[in-house]
Structure prediction request, 248 residues.
Amino acid sequence: MKAHRRALLAALAGIVTAPRARAHDPHAERRRELLQTIERQIRQFAPDIGRSRLAPCVARAIGSVPRHRFVPPQWSELAYANRPLPIGHGQTISQPFIVALMTDLIEPQPSHRVLEVGTGSGYQAAVLAECVAQVYTIEILPALAERARALLAELGYRNVETRLGDGYAGWPQAAPFDGIVVTAAPDHVPPALIEQLAPGGRMVIPVGAQASGQDLLVIRKQADGRTVTQRTIPVRFVPLVRDGAAPR
Prediction:
């Protein structure tokens, strides 16, 4: 009888102390497939841009950030397709490959402070936040800025600070930055962003006319303040909106 009681108590203890099963994530497999697609593209472009694979933190970010939360509901079925999608107000959420590549090209480190120009949906900021200590992100369109701020807070990204403003001028109060990611295309590199890049820092920015597309540039700032520019791949981004002007 006592042995039976001991066995029953042990069974009950096992029920109480057993760890909870993780909630099923219906999008996990789609993120894994997306990551595999991106890594194949990275290997394809490796001879030209000096990359054979994503940095581990970037791969983890792409595999964990819930992109479906950053796209409008009508596009949720395509959230993990490797393509840009409209988010309203003439803007887009970038192709995941481009988000991963731009993040990788600034060579993010856990101690880094990074500026993003063009918050948009907030997805790029979330990916950056998985890799660095602090992200400062600027959006000039109020509706997008508020939506991204609320969503990033809801998802628990405490190391992202958002701001409504003109990203062409950067964020001088928070400078210098170890990395700068610009997610819309000016026709030239804004001088303020060069100034706010720390020595040894890297900026990734699409530059060029809208009619002909742009080049994705990596700009490295040397210790003496001079810069070295590398062209990587041709891209097509929405234009960098300035001073509250309506996007084309």
